[in-house]
Design goal:
Strands 2, 4, 5, 6, 9, 10 and 11 form a 7-stranded mixed sheet that branches. A 4-stranded antiparallel sheet has the order 1-3-8-7, with no helix packed on it. A hairpin with a 4-residue loop joins β7 (68-73) and β8. By secondary structure, it is mainly beta. The model has no long low-confidence stretch (mean pLDDT 95). The protein is globular, with a radius of gyration of 13 Å. Helices cover 0% and strands 50% of the residues.
Length: 126
């Protein structure tokens, strides 16, 4: 069992930056691919970014590429999402998720992930 807890959300003006953190408890954190997703009111949960178990491979949604950066520290069981040049359309609840994937692949679909945090609200004002 893995528990995932996000932090770092808040209110920021357009063009600003935020850094979200995700702490995962449980064994074998380095065995999980980690992903960030977001969900705005009335919309489906969408992929934002993901990273392989070792951190060697990263994936981003086109809408956040070159603005967001995912990183992880396997020694501290944490993964972060650094968000720059934020836009009002980035407003959503951001969720961190862990995927125990023995193949080493990285999933971009939310239904592939095994453990989820409660989410943290990010609001970008115009």
């Amino acid at each position: 069992q893995v528990q995932v807890v996000e932090s770092g959300g808040g209110l920021v003006q357009a063009g600003g930056s935020l850094r979200l953190s995700c702490a995962a408890s449980g064994r074998s954190f380095s065995g999980y691919a980690m992903g960030w997703f977001r969900q705005a009111p009335g919309k489906e949960r969408e992929f934002v970014a993901a990273m392989s178990r070792s951190g060697g491979r990263t994936y981003y949604a086109d809408s956040v590429k070159d603005r967001f950066t995912i990183s992880r520290d396997n020694a501290k069981n944490t993964v972060a999402l650094t968000m720059n040049r934020l836009k009002p359309e980035d407003t959503a609840v951001y969720l961190c998720a862990a995927d125990l994937n023995l193949s080493g692949s990285v999933a971009l679909r939310p239904d592939a992930y095994d453990y989820w945090g409660q989410g943290t609200q990010v609001t970008v004002s115009s």
